[in-house]
Design brief:
single chain, 5 helices, 7-stranded mixed β-sheet, Bifunctional nuclease domain, globular, alpha+beta
Length: about 160
């Protein structure tokens, strides 16, 4: 059984200073934090904030390739949690045939945002992740985590201006 969820935001783990993407069930207070890398957080944040670059970033390139080849992303699913590692599937429609490919959840989510695909989480993943506070209830206390949270929330295309993309 799977549950549809939406990306409710990005935050920082106050203990490890690692970015966290938070998925939330819009029908309940159930949320699922997934720890991701800074580059993946940037890819998600730029799409959430609708930042446009003059050159395609990696996930934009993947979207463009799939579109050129006639491949449609039907949905993504966070399908497992083993040894503190989340796993995901990207479900593709290729010439009317469904197939799925293994992906890191952060990449699957970044692609889902770009193609407006639905995001699902397996109920077992939610159970394995334990009881979580509702999104927005956790207080970030670490100054470094607050700084990174602010950076991610305020990204703009101009922030990347010195880099050719």
């Amino acid at each position: 059984m799977v549950r549809e969820m939406k990306i409710s935001g990005l935050t920082m783990d106050p203990h490890t200073n690692t970015p966290i993407v938070v998925l939330k069930d819009p029908e309940s207070e159930t949320s699922l934090p997934i720890w991701i890398g800074i580059l993946e957080a940037t890819a998600i944040a730029t799409e959430l904030e609708q930042v446009q670059f003059s050159r395609p970033m990696t996930h934009d390139l993947i979207k463009n390739l799939m579109g050129h080849l006639g491949v449609k992303v039907d949905r993504v699913e966070v399908c497992d949690l083993r040894d503190n590692t989340f796993y995901a599937w990207i479900y593709l429609n290729v010439n009317g045939k469904e197939t799925r490919i293994d992906a890191r959840p952060s990449d699957a989510l970044a692609i889902a945002l770009r193609v407006n695909a639905r995001i699902y989480v397996d109920e077992e993943v939610i159970e394995k992740s334990g009881k979580l506070e509702p999104a927005g209830q956790a207080e970030i206390k670490d100054d470094e985590a607050k700084k990174w949270t602010e950076i991610l929330e305020n990204l703009s295309a101009e922030d990347f201006g010195k880099y050719k993309m």
